[in-house]
Amino acid sequence: MAVHGWLLSGRLWQPLVEELGRSWELWCPDLPGFGHAVRPRGLQPSLASYGRWLADAATERAAGRQVVLIGHSLGGSVALHAAPWLGARLAGLVQIAAGGGVYQPRPFALVRRAGCAFVTLRPRWLGRLPGTASIAAPLLADARAARGLLACSTSRAAVRQLPALTAELVVPSLWISGSNDGVMAPRYVRHLAGYTRHHRFEEMTGAGHLPMRQRPVELAALIRSWLEEEGIGFATPELASDPIAPSPEPVGRH
Q: CB-based burial of residue 243 (10 Å sphere; 0-12 exposed, 13-18 middle, 19+ buried)?
């Protein structure tokens, strides 16, 4: 199950679905309030609430199978919050451009101000025009969900909680960073990954913040090799709880 980052949608993963979907089932939902998904009134715009939603959605979708979560950027924080709720259902975690754990007051304040200004001033009508599907997600995202998740993810408490959540992981994890990522520098991804013992860190030379768009073939190869290395999804046929089930048709396309 692949989780997109802030102001994005499940459409983000389309190139990776085309690569991994040849062998594995990859579900890429829109988080509530983003893409085409409506945010239920009872769902609070916080990492904790979205983490619980993600765990419930993954459990329902998996239908008895185990799950590997793939999180991108803020989606990686949501995945970390979902992990405790999944328990034994979780087989592994892949974090792409998702790091942190170091609170930086001034940079985070700037990010909050800039992000909120964009959400307030964006031309939402532009996202409804024909032919704008590729750029529509940031323009149409639910304002309360967008502002709430941005404020929560950059708060002192939330940032300091990430290392603890990472340290609690009992499943193998793969942490991937782009050497040219101007949003989440590789050192922060490596820093957060270091809080869990059973992890592998990979830096993609020349990649930026969206390797699933820039380098889908290379990214798919990294994930595939890690799955093989950890033996995830390669159980004997008589076991019905394969973490990632082979699927002749990719799912979750947007």
A: buried
Quote the CA–CA distance of 116 and 214 in Å, as a whole number.
Answer: 27
Q: Which residue has the tokens 């004997």?
A: 236
In contact, 126 and 155? CB cutoff 8 Å? no
**C-alpha–C-alpha distance, residues 218 and 179, integer Å:** 14
Angle, CA 33 vertex, CA 251 and CA 76 arms, to 5°: 65
Backbone dihedral angles phi then psi of residue 184, each to the nearest 5 degrees: -125, 95
Residue 112: enclosing H or E segment and its boundaries? helix 105-121
Helices and strands in the chain, H and E counts: 10, 5
Q: What's the predicted TM-score (pTM) here?
A: 0.90
> How many other β-carbons are positioned within 10 Å of the β-carbon of residue 58?
23
| Cα(60)–Cα(71) distance, integer angstroms | 18
DSSP secondary structure, 184-218, as one string: S-HHHHHHHHTTSSSEEEEEETT--S-HHHH-HHH
Place of tokens 């940032």: 159
Neighbours of 76 (CB within 10 A): 28
β-pair type (67-72, 90-96) = parallel
pLDDT tens-digit map of 205-231? 999 999 999 999 999 999 999 999 999
